[in-house]
Design a protein that fits this description.
It is a single-pass membrane protein. This is Inositol monophosphatase 3. Its EC number is 3.1.3.25. Belongs to the inositol monophosphatase superfamily. One of its GO terms (molecular function) is 3'-nucleotidase activity. The protein is α+β, with helices and mostly antiparallel strands. It has two domains: 167 residues, Fructose-1,6-Bisphosphatase, subunit A, domain 1 (Fructose-1,6-Bisphosphatase, Chain A, domain 1, 2-Layer Sandwich), CATH 3.30.540; 128 residues, 3-Layer(aba) Sandwich (D-Maltodextrin-Binding Protein, domain 2), CATH 3.40.190. The protein is 37% helix and 23% strand. It contains nine helices and 19 strands. Strands 4-6-7-8-9-10 form a six-stranded mixed beta sheet, with helices on both faces. The protein has a five-stranded mixed beta sheet with strand order 13-12-15-19-17. The N and C termini lie far apart (111 Å).
Length: 344
Amino acid sequence: MAPMGIRLSPLGIGVFCLLGLGVLYHVYSGFLTMHLPFLRERAGDMVDLRELLAVAVQAAELGGKEVKAVRESSTNLQVNSKGKTREGADDKMTRGDLLSNKKMANLIKSNFPGVQVNSEEHLGDDDKEVINWDHTIPSEITDIVTSPKLVPSDSITIWIDPLDATQEYTENLVNYVTTMVCVAVNGKPIIGVIHKPFTGYTAWAMVDSGSNIKKRDSYNKKTPTIIVSRSHAGEVKEVTLRTFGNETKIISAGGSGYKVLSLLDVPGKDQEAADVYVHVTYIKKWDICAGNAILRALGGQMTTLQGEDIIYTGSEANEGGLLASIGLDHNSLVEKLALKVASK
């Protein structure tokens, strides 16, 4: 007697095929979910700057949550020193710096693995994690930047400052604290995001595309108010008073992000107003790149004291000091300051 075989009806065959297709779909979907950021970048090696802006805003705000949570825990700052600054002060680092850096860097690297990311803090192998982004660009951005802005991924350098004004953070002067992300294209700052964790305010701008922040209605051109760093205010005050006169008002403040925002129209009583930001010594590029991009987008300028553009590739250091302004004759300011610094 011949053995009986298994015969499938046309309906059974159809069900079997559908089940097989379902399995393949789930496998393929999982593959895409895991590798989509890489595949998107490899498709012509182009990146949409609107997407980078959306992720930069999310990264700054995500880092800000860590910064705020650590500070409000009050007993768990874990303050350490990374060494000495050139001015001889302790270069401090806290748990807030590290946790903010972990979230910010991992979010950007997970979704844009082909771009160069430079951050103030080191991201060790144990700190790496995948943080997915749903590829939704908020309407706040698309309403202003209405069309895609594609650039080659290898032209991009991202600068992250996970906690600007760490010294002030340890002193609980939290109004000075910001988290920042900057996107530079071929060394030029194009996207800037500055987030204030303790008020929830976020400023962003894209050069030649728009911003959610504005410059102020007026600036004091005759006797500008100068904002300088708390950490070495004496040296800067000497130069600025010699440049602009003894009647010049000088504000000492912490954090480069805070100082840039002081030049703009920022809501809240915790933000002072100034006309010019001056820094006469070495400063790191992650401290200033985001502010540079925002000022450029609004028609302002940030240069060295000699009026040279700051290039955001290569070395992390800007050695030429800093002059930032908006609504004033920047070249005239450069000429005045350059003469005083040279004769110092």
